[in-house]
């Protein structure tokens, strides 16, 4: 278990490298509240933190991403009562489970009245075998046991392959273009946002040598990437939307050249450009 002084310094461990992280007052107090609640519940064996807590760039707008480790024998019981656990932290305004993001173990919470977004993911020790990042340990009943699980874990960020992008990009672009052709501008604009998050943003992060994270903190990359990406944001006007789709096609083709797929989709990008031209 961390001593009080060690905890208050909020030293984070990532891949064996420690870095100091100064949290805003609200976040620092909330970390302590969650840690205390986990410590009180004997069914819970550890509290870990990920996200901005270990990546850096933490500010007053950041979420808190916690992993709550539950003893195997109590897991079903804890999953059935996890909202009660979240409520005991104090100030819970709303909560929903994470099926919509493919993570049913996740409880997504909003606390207040000073608003703060908190993710609580409940796992068993055996679930720590495959991780996207090395978390910081905020509390552990058996530190050596927990470190054993973390040391043995396979840690890999879920980056998409060039073939993953190629097989999806043209389908999604065509889908959005059909909405534009029908005059469904809101739907077409929404699809462009989806395409930035799923394709263009990750590929721009890839170009910068970063883990693929949608458009999160994409502004921090800067350089020549911002204007081409901004060109994919239209106004509520059919011509503007069409131009944004053309810009999305151009940017995808440029980024694809960084790491070409094993096989490109036939007739693309010419076919989608012709379709968009006919939609004008």
Description of the molecule:
By secondary structure, the chain is an alpha+beta fold. The protein folds into two domains: 152 residues, 2-Layer Sandwich (Beta Polymerase, domain 2), CATH 3.30.460.10; 118 residues, Up-down Bundle (Four Helix Bundle (Hemerythrin (Met), subunit A)). It has eleven helices and ten strands. A hairpin with a 4-residue loop joins strand 5 and strand 6. It is elongated, with a radius of gyration of 22 Å. The protein starts with a helix and ends with a helix. The N terminus is likely disordered.
The 3D shape can be described as elongated
Q: What's the CATH H-level superfamily name of the largest domain?
A: Beta Polymerase, domain 2
Unreliable spans: 1-20
CATH domain class of the largest domain: Alpha Beta
- Give the strand order, joined by hyphens, for the main sheet: 5-6-7-4-3-9
Rg, nearest Å: 22 Å
CATH architecture of the largest domain: 2-Layer Sandwich
Approximately how much beta-strand content do the residues carry? 15-25%
Mean pLDDT: 89
Q: What is the N-to-C succession of helices and strands? A: HEEHEHEHHEEEEEHEHHHHH
Helix residue percentage = 40-55%
> Can you count the helices?
11
Write the topology of this structure.
Elements: H1 4-8, E1 11-14, E2 17-20, H2 25-40, E3 44-50, H3 52-55, E4 64-70, H4 75-80, H5 82-88, E5 92-98, E6 103-111, E7 116-123, E8 130-131, E9 136-140, H6 143-152, E10 154-155, H7 162-181, H8 185-207, H9 226-230, H10 238-256, H11 270-279
Parallel strand pairs: 4-7, 8-10
Antiparallel strand pairs: 1-2, 3-4, 3-9, 5-6, 6-7
